[in-house]
Design goal:
Rossmann fold; 2 domains; six-stranded parallel β-sheet
Length: 304
């Protein structure tokens, strides 16, 4: 197990500095934390108070604290959507960073980011990039969660099937795409703003104008192939899963969330709808409540 490897490394390093342990604690907790990190830099350690009197007792306390540090190392991978960038999930990543000491990774998928360059990119490139980020977290962490937004939700589901992920969070995940009813309402709002001379202030128009121009048709085909690849294996997702969907999403229809809930093989799963949210669910007005629910879901012990 990974924890055994960490423990072995830590215990083998004890002899180098256990004799001076008391002097370290007298100089404050930070020196103690640094000593642990000199053994393994990936450890996240929180120590409230250390009080040791005898050298022998010091060694026992040292091993005990190190064991706690190893067990609670947690990683969390957040994956953005098609033609998107990390900003789509960054509010949730920031929320978790402020409340945990987890290792949070928010990669940019190939061809994505502030400037789109999707020509020649295949859907397998997106999966492989996410796989490398996940493998990096798995090498560091005892527990790993994966969060996926829109297309990132499909990639996250793929990873949950093929890797030892502990929990899965799907946000506006695109098992289906385009919500004609909501899209019609959004277009109506754009027309009204255009007639009033305020089209440049319309959020939907400004967000998707650039994407439509910069997205080659071949990239859209790759997105569809990704969806077609992942949908048949959703029944193999067997870890606790949290699904959230905006009711006003014009890109991913509500039936996508229902399909995911019914298709995923996990017995422990939860589906919520966010009433006023459009597609960018991490940026909606109800995001704080959503993030709180996600945080509590990830903290809860898995149902056995």
């Amino acid at each position: 197990m990974r924890s055994n490897r960490f423990l072995f490394n830590g215990i083998s390093g004890i002899s180098n500095w256990s004799e001076s342990f008391n002097s370290y604690t007298n100089k404050g907790d930070e020196r103690f934390k640094q000593s642990f990190r000199s053994v393994n830099p990936y450890l996240n350690i929180t120590i409230s108070k250390i009080s040791i009197v005898q050298n022998q007792g010091c060694k026992i306390e040292l091993i005990f604290q190190f064991l706690l540090a190893v067990i609670y190392v947690i990683g969390c991978l957040c994956i953005h959507g098609f033609t998107g960038a990390p900003f789509e999930v960054e509010p949730l990543a920031d929320y978790l960073r402020k409340r945990t000491n987890w290792e949070i990774a928010v990669p940019t998928l190939p061809g994505h980011g502030d400037t789109l360059s999707l020509k020649g990119i295949e859907y397998k490139n997106w999966i492989e990039h996410a796989e490398r980020e996940l493998q990096r977290l798995i090498a560091k962490c005892e527990t790993v969660y994966v969060i996926g937004f829109s297309m990132g939700g499909l990639i996250a589901s793929y990873l949950a099937v093929h890797y030892p992920v502990t929990k899965l969070v799907l946000l506006s995940a695109a098992a289906y795409y385009l919500n004609p009813k909501q899209l019609f309402l959004d277009i109506g709002d754009m027309v009204k703003d255009a007639l009033r001379g305020r089209i440049s202030e319309n959020e939907m128009f400004t967000r998707y104008k650039r994407k439509i121009k910069a997205t080659p048709f071949t990239a859209t085909l790759q997105f569809r192939r990704l969806v077609s690849t992942v949908r048949p294996i959703l029944n193999k997702v067997e870890i606790p899963t949290f699904i959230a969907q905006g009711e006003c999403d014009g890109v991913v229809p509500p039936k996508s969330a229902q399909f995911l809930y019914q298709s995923i093989g996990a017995s422990a799963k939860k589906l919520i709808y966010v009433k006023e949210s459009r597609h960018l669910i991490c940026h909606c007005e109800e995001s704080e409540n959503l993030f709180s629910e996600i945080h509590h879901f990830l903290l809860r012990e898995p149902i056995q």
